Amino acid sequence: MILAYLDASALAKRYVPETGSPAVEHLFRRVPTSQLAVLSVGLAEVMSILVRKRNLGRLTAALFRQAVSDASAEVGTASPVRLVTVDGALAQRAFHLIDQYSINSTDAILLRSALDLAAPLRARGDDLLLVASDRRLLKASQAEGLATFDPEAQSPADLDAFLGP
C-alpha cells in the first residue's frame, strides 16, 4: 500500500486547472481516498490558494464556489482522507527541519509528519509518497529519504512507475 501525502501546492491543482493538474487527477484516479493524507492546515492553505486565484481573476465566482465545495467534500473532515493534525509536540519536532533545510514552518511540519507516517508504513513493507510542487519541500523530503512526486515536473507515467500495477 502507498499512502500519498499531498501538500497544498499539489492538492490545489485538483480544484483549479493549472500546470500539474492532469497528474493530480491521475493520482486521484489511481489512489483510493482512504490512502490519501493531507495536513489539516493544508486545507486552509488550499482555501487561501483558491481565494488568491479568485481575487486575481483566474477563477470566476461560480468556479470558486464549486472548487470550495469540491475540496470540502473530497478532503474535508467528513471524507475518508487522513487529516494529519498539528499539535505543539509535532510543531516542536519540526523546528530543526526549518533551520536544516531553510523551509517554512508549515513545510517543516508536513515533512516531520510525513517522516512519522512513513516509518510504520515502511516497517510493514508499505511506503509514503509525498506529493508537492514546492521545490524546497521536495528537496528536503528527498534528503530525508522520502519518495516524492512533483505533478508540475513529473508525468502520470512517472506516478504509475512508482505505484506499480
Describe the structure concisely for a colleague.
The chain is of the alpha/beta class and 165 residues long. It has one domain (2-163): Rossmann fold (3-Layer(aba) Sandwich).
Helix content: 55-70%
Residue stretches low in confidence (pLDDT < 50, at least 5 long) are none
Work out the strand percent.
5-15%
Seen as an oligomer or otherwise, the chain set is single chain
Report Rg.
15 Å
Our count of helices gives 8
Structural overview:
By secondary structure, the protein is an alpha/beta fold. The protein has one domain (about 1-165): Rossmann fold, CATH 3.40.50. Helix content is about 60%, strand content about 10%. The chain contains 8 helices and 5 strands, in the order βααβααβααβαβα. The protein has helices at about 10, 20-30, 40-55, 60-75, 90-100, 105-125, 135-145, 155-165; strands at about 1-5, 35-40, 80-85, 125-130, 145-150. Strands 3-2-1-4-5 form a 5-stranded parallel sheet, with helices on both faces. Strand 4, helix 7 (about 135-145) and strand 5 form a beta-alpha-beta unit. It is globular and about 45 Å long. The termini are close together. The model has no long low-confidence stretch (mean pLDDT about 95).
Describe how the helices and strands are arranged:
Elements: E1 2-6, H1 8-11, H2 21-30, E2 36-39, H3 40-55, H4 61-75, E3 82-84, H5 88-101, H6 105-123, E4 127-131, H7 135-143, E5 147-149, H8 156-163
Parallel strand pairs: 1-2, 1-4, 2-3, 4-5
Helix pairs in contact: 2-8, 3-4, 5-6
